[in-house]
Amino acid sequence: MGVLDIRNVVKIYPGHGPADEPVKALADISFTVGQDEFCSVLGHSGCGKTTLLNIIAGFDDATLGTIHLDGRPIGRPGWERAMIFQDYALFPWLTVLGNVAFGLEMKRVPAEARARLAQRQIELVGLSGFEHRYPHQLSGGMRQRVAIARALAVDPAVLLMDEPFAALDAQNRSMLQDEMVRIFMEQRKTMVLVTHSIEEAIKLSDRIIVMTRRPGRVKANIEVDMPRPRREESPEFVALKARIRDLIHDEFDLSELPGAAAPFAATPAVGASPA
Ligand SMILES: Nc1ncnc2c1ncn2[C@@H]1O[C@H](COP(=O)(O)OP(=O)(O)O)[C@@H](O)[C@H]1O
Ligand SMILES: [Mg+2]
Q1: Which partner from 139, 161, 253, 271 sits 20 to 30 angstroms from 45, CA to CA?
Q2: How far apart are CA 232 and CA 173, in angstroms?
């Protein structure tokens, strides 16, 4: 369960109106995420990460290519592909318990089992005692824990996460990353995380897909075989971080920096004002 196979996926957004050029977001993406594997998709902003995740979730269609989950082509959005967004997307009118039980209701799980399963997930994400709070009564980190519990409660085949920690401050982000490692170790599941943080990808992943700039392609497919939890100071961590940073820096086009006239314009013109 939970083998995700992405083959030659291309996405071209049509232009909006006669003057608008179509946008090629994904060029030709192929990779496989194994059962109970944690896979991160890492790349610069705008390289097509959200586009890819939305296609996997079924919110959008690929222009070309196929995606199979356990040998079956993916279709419309469904509970077997749960998604966690950056901005929590909780229902403000439901309590923590209500939010976590919501997907189970959709899945027509009977009330008694629903309460039990929801409670278990709330415990797993460390929110026992907060069942009857509403989202506005929680911190950003706690809200994202609710979103994780809600997504996992339906027991999806794959959990999709689009920069789920990006809106948190550095300390909370780091804490929730550690929590995610613990949750993954306790409840193994195929997970796909989209991120632009190299450290986050290394902390969490069995596999890291490094993307090129737009239109996104797979620049590198790296298997990470390090015991968890991983220490950022460890030599393996530092070495992998340097390797990935080099890969990603290759993708940085200096000509696109604001104020840069040309990639190799090293000598400023006489009398040029400082940038
Ligand atoms: N609905 C859309 N219509 C047209 N272009 C889009 C649309 N959504 C995203 N794009 C473009 O596709 C590219 C990839 O976007 P996105 O997948 O959001 O990147 P990322 O998540 O890696 O930052 C960007 O250039 C973006 O402007
Ligand atoms: Mg994005």
Answers
A1: 139
A2: 15
